[in-house]
Design goal:
alpha/beta, Rossmann fold, 2 domains, 13 strands, about 35% helix, about 15% strand
């Protein structure tokens, strides 16, 4: 993948915050497998929730981590994060890779040191989801966030110019990088743990529908639960979040909330599900690929990163509007057409998203960019004459000043 010279470089990986092990952190793990010598920089790290692979590397936190209650309320210090990034000293590194979803790409990199940004998403709360985030605030919080978001957008766009090359996690994110930053981005879909999520034994009964997600508004668990009200089908809801209590107060009898589920149990739930319901507009969506690797089709809102993974009519069905009736009709349509979905074929389609494939594609782009930067540095050196090449004429006579 990478030649020994590249693997031997000093590499800095910048990640926004390390407080759980989700999709962004799995990307960091794969980058560490490419660069075992890399050091990690982040605003806040909760070491009790991180993998041994991440904990095995030097892990540096910005001054955000020293602020009161930063481990739990790090997002409240968003206004200080640009300055915190700019104070990171990267002068000893040969390559900088930022992992961007919260502020991470705004580091100041020395001249001729390549900066590659793997972007999970431009910050949603500043851009396409801004009206939703702002609309859920009131009074002084809304006024403060409006002023803060305006200033952060200016910094976010200007800091995009500090990146030599963007790699987006989906075509949907690449389009948004173009729209907001006016930059092109390569596309490399993130890695999915295909070893854990596998086809169940032949003959496994598929008895329920499944929703797996954080229970937050933009994931739209409310629509899914309401769509199953009155249906003769069972829905299991996996996940927890700020909307858990409100959703639990008015559950239909055919809907069960399971909360957080261990990985091994989740694999079994995927393998026994008739279909996964995926109603959100996501940047990519690792959950649908996990379900597909278990041979489970996906009923999804047909916009966003889901278009990179699910093929309508083969590995799932799309509905065209985020609404209760649209989801209910999609489930009924799936019931009529369920026999056309082949679990073996669906699981095979998920193999495109392996960790090995991710490392191979990332390595190719990094090698290409380092070669381009090296050539640019050589051309720059060739264009700048050395002092010995410059003809120096006689010095001018001193100017006579009147006494």
């Amino acid at each position: 993948m990478l030649d020994d010279q590249i693997r031997g470089q000093r590499v800095a990986i910048i990640h926004y915050w390390l407080v759980s092990m989700r999709g962004g952190e799995r990307v960091v793990e794969e980058l560490l497998r490419l660069f075992p010598q890399a050091e990690i920089f982040t605003h806040v790290a909760d070491r009790s929730k991180l993998s041994p692979l991440i904990l095995d590397r030097p892990l540096h936190e910005t001054f955000i981590s020293k602020l009161p209650f930063a481990r739990r309320h790090y997002q409240k210090y968003l206004a200080l994060m640009p300055r915190a990034l700019e104070e990171i000293d990267l002068s000893d590194f040969d390559l900088v890779i930022s992992s961007e979803s919260g502020p991470a790409k705004g580091v100041i990199v020395p001249p001729l040191v390549p900066h590659i940004c793997y972007i999970h998403t431009p910050m949603r709360y500043l851009w396409d989801h801004y009206p939703t985030y702002r609309g859920r605030l009131s009074g002084l919080k809304r006024s403060y966030f409006s002023r803060l978001a305006h200033r952060l957008r200016i910094w976010d766009v200007s800091s995009a110019a500090r990146v030599d090359r963007f790699i987006a996690n989906s075509n949907f994110v690449a389009e948004r990088v173009q729209r907001y930053y006016h930059r092109q981005a390569d596309v490399v879909n993130p890695p999915v743990d295909l070893e854990t999520y596998r086809l169940p034994p032949a003959g496994t009964k598929r008895s329920h529908y499944l929703f797996v997600s954080q229970l937050v508004h933009y994931k739209r668990p409310d629509l899914v639960i309401e769509a199953f009200r009155g249906l003769d089908q069972r829905l299991l809801v996996v996940g927890e979040g700020e909307e858990s209590e409100a959703l639990a107060r008015n559950l239909p009898p055919n809907v069960t909330m399971l909360g957080r589920v261990p990985t091994e149990n989740l694999a079994a739930l995927y393998g026994s599900a008739r279909a996964l319901i995926f109603p959100g507009e996501e940047d990519f969506g690792i959950v649908p690929v996990e379900a597909m690797s278990c041979g489970t089709p996906v009923i999804a809102y047909g916009r966003g990163g889901i278009l990179d993974s699910v093929t309508d009519g083969i590995s799932g069905l799309f509905f065209e509007r985020q609404g209760v009736e649209e989801i209910r009709e999609a489930v009924l349509r799936f019931e009529r057409e369920a026999a056309r979905f082949d679990p073996v074929r669906i699981a095979a389609m998920a193999q495109r998203f392996s960790a090995e494939r991710f490392r191979r594609e990332i390595a190719a782009i990094i090698t290409s960019e380092l070669g381009r930067q090296s050539l640019k540095a050589k051309n720059f050196s060739a264009e700048v004459p050395s002092l010995s090449d410059v003809e120096v004429g006689p010095l001018p006579r001193p100017l006579a000043l009147p006494v």
